[in-house]
Amino acid sequence: MRSARLRMLVLYLGLVVFALLWLVPVMTAFMTSIRPLDEIRGGWWNFDGATFTLDNYARAWDQGLSSFVLNTFVITLGSVAVTVAAGALATYAFIHLTFRFQRLWFFLLITTMIVPIQLILIPLLPWFRTLGLDQGAMQFVGIILVHTGFGAGWAVFMLSSFFREVPKEMLEAGQIDGAGHWAQFRRLVLPLAMPGLVSFAIIDFIFVWNDLLLALTLLQRDFQPIQVGLANLQSPHLAQQDLVSAGAILAILPPLVLFAALNRYYVRGLFAGGTKG
């Protein structure tokens, strides 16, 4: 009993140390964002005559971030919605239906998880021009389709264990009552797989929200997300650590709020996914 408590104490102490190490850069960014640049050059931990202000946030917002926020929400919410919908439908088909070349299609879809984005980034450009996805608001459609293409394999991979655990007896009972595949998917499978759907949605939201490379390469200036605007705050000839830090704090707030709001579903999904075969 004593040895078990000792091991648990050591484990918690180790987790606390790692948590504190993780908080160091976050605390650095936060303190840099609320102090003038001339003060933080001597170290943000020096509080002699320290001045705290929110002007850095206002300046970062006015110098470009405000024009990227709406684009970011359109791209992120659209990509997550389409990816979750397509991934859920594809997972239901792979788990509960039978069709030709099923294993081959499943294998090809899963292989998208290991394809580096950099490998197909340049070949995507002529496709964007050919399909007209490089003009106006169609750029939103194009980037959403690209994120869906990269996220669909992850969606099927993560959701398979949840969909597979839906009792076949329940689906058979639904068939006896006259429910077709769409009714079974919507009324039986989705409610039971909701923790997995939410878990994947949170992960995909963070991935798309933090995307810089795809947006910087495929989108024009007026349609780029906040990560590109954040990169533009840092000039090669002018160090603006205060503005960049303020912009970084603003950029992480939506994913942080989303995770806090849906944390119970996310944790439930992780535990469920870890115990399902």
Structural class: mainly alpha
How many H/I helices?
13
- Using only C-alpha atoms, the radius of gyration works out to 23 Å
The description of the largest β-sheet is: none
Q: What string gives the helices and strands in order?
A: HHHHHHHHHHHHH
Classify the beta-strand content into a percent band: under 5%
CATH architecture of the largest domain: Orthogonal Bundle
Mean pLDDT rating: 82
Fold topology:
Elements: H1 2-33, H2 37-40, H3 55-96, H4 102-111, H5 117-130, H6 138-164, H7 168-176, H8 181-192, H9 194-209, H10 213-218, H11 226-232, H12 241-261, H13 263-275
Helix pairs in contact: 1-12, 3-6, 3-9, 3-11, 3-12, 6-9, 7-8, 9-13, 11-12
Model description:
- The structure is a single chain.
- This protein is mostly helical and 277 residues long.
- The protein folds into two domains: 1-53, no CATH class; 57-275, Orthogonal Bundle (MetI-like fold).
- The chain has helices spanning 2-33, 37-40, 55-96, 102-111, 117-130, 138-164, 168-176, 181-192, 194-209, 213-218, 226-232, 241-261, 263-275.
- It is globular.
- Residues 273-277 have low confidence and may be disordered.
